[in-house]
Specification:
Blueprint lengths: L11 E7 L3 H16 L4 H21 L8 E8 L5 E7 L20 H8 L2 E6 L13 E7 L3 H8 L14
Antiparallel strand pairs: 1-2, 2-3, 3-5, 4-5
Length: 171
Amino acid sequence: MALVVAQEAPTSSTMAVPHGPAGVGAARRRMREELLGSGTPEAVVDDAVLILSELLSNAYRHARPIGVSDCVRAAWGRTADGGVSVSVTDGGGPTRPRPSNPSVTARGGRGLSIITSLASDWGVRDDRGGRGRGHGHGGVTVWAVVAPSEDDAFSSSMRFDLSELEGLEDL
């Protein structure tokens, strides 16, 4: 008799990510593995991973790490309706995150526009509580929500009982 141990994938995770490009790949891989392991549709996972990558890249380019840790905090989780929430908390920067309109030849400035296109909702929360930019225990969190996959909703709405169709017995 074989003993099978089921391992349940977490429905939410938080990760300290080194402030710099080195941690982005590790965070993307962990998020992808955990979300796919929890049964999240691949299309939703792809969008969530791209959003995480953009949020982390923005934190490295435009903000400080949290406190003295030299890290930012990435978090993600399944929403009640089957979507995914994604957030990155950093120590804040000189300006509040907002979408821009870069020129066609600009090398950057499209991250939040990409997030706006992929997410059903997103926003910014400043939890620094007046303790100064990045010196307290709070931070600035940019969050986004990826809606459940429309493909899954479409395929489940297309289920029907073949026995209800007339004339099939003649085929």
